[in-house]
């Protein structure tokens, strides 16, 4: 069991229309602690009719929530933000228990999640329109922005809190209402956000959390004509399915999908800074983020020195349950995640790569895996094509700038990319040539609430966070008035 300062945050029911409900047929989903394999709680496996009820409640609530002044919505969202900060330790405890990330990282996520609510509580008041000079003297042209309506969110397990607030905060700020379906592995954090939403005064139906079979719930949400917008974070594969399911109702979509981030180190880079950036971007959340560097490309002149420094640091990364002090790498989310990491390492080794550090399941057992560094990696290996989503750093060697840019872009993904160089001219050439939605230069950490997060190519559609983020929940209305 998870110990909380405020035990009220632990819920085993869903938040629908201001009530905490179980599934009519009493069906449940078990939630496991990935560090121990223990079942820590159950949540309802709602029936389609329960989800339909949530959509109907969101529709009813939209009528009043969207009519509130932006200032009023902002005040309520501000309170939600404050409650998240006040309860950050409990949110962290829930996250570590159901997701596995170390407590310090989980606390960091709680505050990161709250930062989106703070940011969009402020942006709520800045949804500006436009006036456009008409082509004739007898007309006036006004552009106004209005909330899209009822929105749905389907979110992943790797960031149980932040992936929800990054969608719900701009939606609610814009005047939309939202039904959230969290990942089945991490519903407890989502339900705790629901408790805090109620406490903040967010009215019934405005923010709802439904748990259940992903396909069934996703089916109801995408088929509904009432749901005007779907925001999804998860795999490209599921993103494609949801996009297809949304086609009959021409839903608006925001999709934050997979990545295959290149991390490029040129000969002229500050190698210590590059190693530090690589550790931060590769091993955060045990490598389970869509912006984690997946491929490390190091120029020939710096290759050996970089590998030596990286290997030394990776050997020092402590592995264990996220609740233990000083642990930096928690368990992977489940057995499938471990199998994928193993498959990528085996494939690379069979094709000639060398394991410099790690390479195996950790002696702790369960889903713990040794932080790993591979050298001699080539574009022919699986690690070059697929997102590993684990603590494995494959280090590729390259000779020229043109060559590495071509290798970095040789993927259907285009989420985040990183490069290290001290050369200003090269910096501009490389940032312009990389086909990615986000590029970090001399840093491995780029996410924050003020900047637009999102990908190009098959990494998705739309942007989250920043002043662009609220546009995803607004429609542009053109108003033309004839005055002659
Ligand atoms: P991951 O590989 O990170 O688990 P997924 O894309 O499988 O990513 O899952 C992300 C979210 O999508 C989760 O909430 C999951 O329950 C949901 N999901 C998975 N498959 C479907 C589906 N067919 N329809 C709707 N939602 C789905």
From TrEMBL:
The keyword Oxidoreductase applies. PROSITE patterns: ALDEHYDE_DEHYDR_CYS, ALDEHYDE_DEHYDR_GLU. Residues 20-478 form the Aldehyde dehydrogenase domain. The active site is at 256. One of its GO terms (cellular component) is cytosol. One of its GO terms (molecular function) is succinate-semialdehyde dehydrogenase (NAD+) activity. Keywords: Oxidation, Oxidoreductase, Potassium. CDD domains: ALDH_F5_SSADH_GabD (cd07103). The keyword Lipoprotein does not apply. It comes from the Bacteria. One of its GO terms (biological process) is gamma-aminobutyric acid catabolic process. This is Succinate semialdehyde dehydrogenase. It comes from Martelella mediterranea.
